[in-house]
Amino acid sequence: MKILVTGTAGFIGNQLALRLLERGDTVIGVDNVNDYYDVTLKAARLDRVKDHPGFTEIRAGIHDRTAMEQVFAQYQPQRVVNLAAQAGVRYSLKNPYAYVDSNLLGFVNILENCRHHQVEHLVYASSSSVYGANTRMPFSVHHNVDHPISLYAASKKSNELMAHTYSHLFQLPTTGLRFFTVYGPWGRPDMALFLFTKAILAGRPIDVFNHGNMQRDFTYIDDIIEGVIRVLDKIPEGNPRWQAEHPDPGSSYAPYKIYNIGNHNPVQLLRLIEILEQNLGKTAEKRFLPMQAGDVPATYADVDDLINDVGFKPATPLETGIEQFVHWYRKFYLA
After folding, report:
1. What is the pLDDT of residues 220-232, one digit of tens each?
2. Prediction pTM value
């Protein structure tokens, strides 16, 4: 297939592009390679795909309406995976406009072009952060998620609502994926595992928020990619059992679907640090701090719908994933 992937210099987008190319798809990769974090890492990711004959690189932001219209008109993708976004819960407290430009305006550009170019299926990144103030565990796509606690989370919830509108109005098949704490080789430098590794190796203390009383459903990158590809290949249809009197948030009468992609195994943050220390051969100096604004104490994914619909459940143990990450980190930064 001819697939447009946005965010191909990013952690998930780059790995997805690589896997799609390996299976024989043509990939049009869109990324503006902004400086939210180290552009050297982004460039190195792009080096992994740029010489593949099936890959076309487009340097543009999805918020650029004219650029997006030109890309869709020229390449006529059959399916689209939108992974480009301004990421990060904490950064949204500092620079909210970046989230409006990319996650809202940019997503409208994606929706409009999918509509006008008869795209077969739009898959887009949502986030576990949409569960916000919810405390009922595990988090299910069938739960109400109307209480976000960060602008980032609100922007991702908005994407789900916007997608449903286009599924309803224009019969555009859309699937939103709520990712749970993705980690692994080639990961994001603003994520905890990356920050901890860099600090421990440098002999600096690490910041442990909520005094260590945090749980995360850490999900290995290869599991995320497998889930994305399986969902991409399954075009959603309307749910004939959907009832307007008792609306199910995770499905619709329209061709619209939401899935969690998580490991279904919340792990204490201190356990992650312990495994990391073992792999690095160094003990971390821990600086215990209060919970940060916009953060949640725990995440835990219910993945029953993913299992039932596409036959997949993430299962990479944290011990395996951290070992792979540390191996990559040493090779990339220290070799």
Report:
1. 999 999 999 999 9
2. 0.96
